[in-house]
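The following record pairs a protein chain with its ligand, heme C.
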Amino acid sequence: MLTFARFLLVAILTGLFVSITLISAGVPLAEPARTPDLSTPEGVYTAACAACHAADGRGSPLERVGFDIPLPDFSNCSFATREPDGDWFSIAHQGGPVRGFADNMPAFGEALTEEQIAMAIEHIRTFCDDRAWARGELNFPRAISTEKAFPEDELLLTTKIAVEGDGAFVQNVLYERRFGAANQLEIKVPIVGRENDPNGGWNAGVGDIELGVKRVLIQNPNAGYILSVTGAVLVPVGDHEKGLGKGTALFEPFVTAGFRLPRDSFFQLMVGGELSTDTDKADHEAFYRAVVGKTFTSGRFGRSWSPMLEILGATEFGHDGAESQLDLMPEIQVSLNTRQHIMANFGVRFPVTEAAHRNTQVLFYLLWEWFDGGFLDGW
Ligand code: HEC
């Protein structure tokens, strides 16, 4: 009995001694149970995303995550603000491949509820809180003629062919590049072809080049509207004699606006003028363009289709008074690849007024949002 009591005492004292030694050496005795808090945006992010995307959203070092796919920097406003929540939700729910990204970005559709995924994204949004940057929610689909208010990094190739009459065609190359939080530079180079030789010959060449700067004035992602102004100059490099250019410089100021409507619908407007520097060669013109449309998605996360209707009006103020014209253009835009940064649009432009003198035109564009990846990425 006595030996057992003594044994017990020694055992307790030894245990105490070892414990005190370990504690003073800073070794934890037992891992505190880590119950992830999945009820707050930060809690969900910390539990599910931070291992790879890091607590500050800039991405953990590659040697720590164990793969060599670079992690996005969510604190970089230029990158983070242009993606709408809906796209990020799709990626977090389905995993990277749903938008042509690596499968190192896992799918959380089964591990987390939809509310928790939305909370994780809400937390990602806190890494860039500079409201000057236009939000991707206001980046409505690009119509063929009505320009967007949203500043873009994109390359747009638009082909316009008259299906009646002289068969004229125009191939426009439009390059747009963002700078700063709310500005964009644009350069448009047209290749024009027309059969204006009485003997049936063709004239083709570079038309008048347009240089412009766009600036967002107001935007509100919650209310769903954005408004920008653009100042552009048409530089008369096209051969006026051959009908490829206007032969004089024009100034083109215009306003663009975009409005979100219920159920993935939108309305966009572009109103402006062309001020001629030589009214013997080119008339002053006022124009307005408007587009309504709606986006449909194949399945829940798939290809997007946006049928639209454009109304295109212009009034020329010539020496013998004003002359107005109006056209309608039904069109459909579709995303071509999985990442959805390569799009196509096809439309037919019908003259409504003076239809006897003016052509019906077929239009087509190919759009590459080059900031989101190379042309061959994400198919
Ligand atoms: C196992 C590591 C890992 C975890 C955990 C992880 N991600 Fe990712 N995530 C990645 C990688 C890698 C990429 C980049 C993929 C690429 O560029 O191909 C990525 C990309 C993304 C993107 C796309 C950004 C873009 O380029 O548009 C979003 C959005 C995203 N993650 C959200 C989340 C959210 C939300 C969570 C938590 C619910 C999460 N991720 C958890 C690895 C991870």
